[in-house]
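Long-time lurker. I teach an intro course on protein structure, and each term I like to show students one example going from raw sequence to a predicted 3D structure in C-alpha cell notation. This year I'd like something fresh instead of my usual example. Would anyone be willing to generate the C-alpha cells for the chain below so I can use it in lecture? Attribution to the forum is fine with me.
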Amino acid sequence: MKTILLILALSVGGGWWYYRRTHNDKIEYLTTRVERAEMTQAVTATGTLNPVVLVQVGSQISGNVLKLYADFNTNVTAGQLVAQIDPAVYLAVVHQCDGDLAMSKAALELARVTAKRKQELFDQKAGTQADLDVALANLHQAEATITIKEANLEKAKLDLEHCGIYSPINGSVILRSVDVGQTVAAAMNAPVLFTIAKDLTDLQIDSAVAEADVGIATVGQTVDFTVDAFPYQTFHGTVRQVRDAASTLQNVVTYDVVITVKNPDLKLLPGMTANIAIVIAHKDDALRVPNAALRFKMPEREAQATPATPAPADRKPQGGPKLRQKQRSVYVMPPEGGKPHQVNVKLGINDGVYTEVTEGLNEGDMVVTGASMPNSHSGPSAPNPFGGAAHK
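-- Reply from a regular --
Happy to contribute to a lecture. Here you go:
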C-alpha cells in the first residue's frame, strides 16, 4: 500500500514539475535593428558570350586545300587572302573554254562567208531560197554558240578566282575547320573553312530569362555579370533587345534577352558562360529589414490577440522605380521591453536577403527574426542568420 502511495506521489510531483517547467519559462526573441543601406533588386539568369557579328567563311568550289594563310586567333582584314584551293583543275577548264571559243569563232566566220555566197547566188537566180535559208540559220546558230562559249569561259574564270578564299570583314579568326591537303566538297553545301568574329572588343550575351521575370526586363537596363574565368570580377553591360520568340525546354519557357558588353581589354572570350543580374531597381538609402523578419510567426501560446498596428498614414513610398507595393506584417520589440507587437508594413524592392520597407517602420526599430523556447519539446525556432540581440 505504501509503495502505491509513493508511486502516486511521485507521478503527481513529476507532472506538476513538468507543467511548471514548460509554462513558466520565458521565450527568448531574436531581433535585428532596422537600418538604412544600399539595395539592388535584380533578375538573375545565365547566358553565353558571343561576338556581335560572326561570319562563316566557306568555299563555293570543291578541291584540295593548297595553302592556309590564317590560323586560330589571326587578325584579318577585309579582302585578305586566308586560304588557297588548288587551281590546277580550274585553270585547265579555262584553257579548254578558250579553245572552244576559238573554234566557235572560226565556225562563225565560215557561216558568214557561206551565207554571203548563198545570198549572191540567190540574187543571180542561180540558187534556191531553201539553200539561202539554211545558210542564214547556220549563221545565227554560230552567233548563239559564240555567246554560250563566252559564258562558259567567264564561268571558268570565276571558278578560278574562287580558288582564293578571302576574308569578308575585319576581325579575328576564332575557328579554323580545314587543314592543308584536305579536300572540300561544295556539291551540296558550302563547306565552312573559317569562322571570323568581326570585333571582339564588342560582345553580346544571349541570355535565357524565365517567363516570370521577362516582363520587368526592358531595353536600357544595367546588367552586372560574372564569368567563371574571373570569379572575383564583376563586368557590366546593357540590355539591347528583349526578343519575343519563346524557347521551351523541359516545360520551362524562357525568352532571349540580348545584352551588349564592352570588352576593351579582351579578357572576355566568345563561348564563356555569364551569370547575369539584370538590375531592376536600385536605391542608395533604403530602409530595410531582413527577410527572416517577414517569415517569422509568433509561437501559438504567445500569439497576440490584439489587432496589428496599421502603417502610419503620413509615410509615403520613397522615390524610385514604380514597383508593386506588397503589404505584410512584422513583429517589433518595444524599446522598454516586454512582448513584441505586430505591425503592418508596406514593402518595396527585394535583393533576396533584405526587403525595403516603405511604410510602417522607422530606422532603429528592433524587429523579431526568431524565437527560442529551450524547454519546448518541439525545440527552438530556426536561428537568426543575421545575428541580433535576444530579448525575453
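Some talking points for your students: The mean pLDDT is 84. DSSP finds four helices and 20 strands in the chain.
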